């Protein structure tokens, strides 16, 4: 199912992105119960090889960041927005994993 939806999105947007923006397109496909399409595993594998980091913590970090990003974007749709006063930034997976927290900012 993931592959079919992924291919449909790729057919729809790939030509435009290649011709207009001169980039490449890798669609992210999710299910309502938390499943991810295989492209996210590929992205994690390539990233772990480039950064010489273990695959397992990196894919867990990516899944967690994506889950919180999706959750963070749906909550304002349900209850309305509230401005956040404090926004810590943790972009490095090693720092987030070593400190024991994952923050989406």
Please describe what this structure looks like:
By secondary structure, the protein is an all-alpha fold. It has one domain. 63% of the residues lie in helices and 0% in strands. The protein has four helices and no strands. The longest helix is centred in the middle third of the chain and has 25 residues, at 55-79. The mean pLDDT is 79.
Give average pLDDT, whole number. 79
Give the oligomer, counting copies of the same chain as homo and different chains as hetero.
single chain
Which radius of gyration do the C-alpha atoms yield?
16 Å
**Helix and strand sequence:** HHHH
Spans of at least 5 consecutive residues with low confidence: none
Proportion of helical residues: 55-70%
Structural class: mainly alpha
Tell me how many strands there are. 0
Any key phrases for this structure?
mainly alpha, 105 residues
Short description:
With 105 residues, this protein is an all-alpha fold.
List the topology elements.
Layout: H1 2-21, H2 38-51, H3 55-79, H4 93-99
Helix pairs in contact: 2-3
């Amino acid at each position: 199912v993931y592959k079919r939806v992924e291919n449909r999105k790729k057919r729809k947007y790939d030509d435009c992105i290649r011709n207009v923006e001169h980039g490449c397109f890798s669609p992210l496909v999710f299910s309502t119960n938390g499943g991810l399409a295989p492209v996210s595993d590929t992205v994690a594998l390539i990233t772990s090889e480039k950064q010489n980091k273990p695959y397992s913590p990196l894919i867990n970090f990516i899944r967690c960041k994506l889950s919180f990003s999706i959750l963070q974007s749906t909550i304002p749709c349900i209850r309305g927005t509230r401005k956040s006063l404090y926004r810590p930034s943790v972009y490095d997976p090693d720092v987030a994993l070593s400190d024991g927290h994952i923050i989406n900012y």
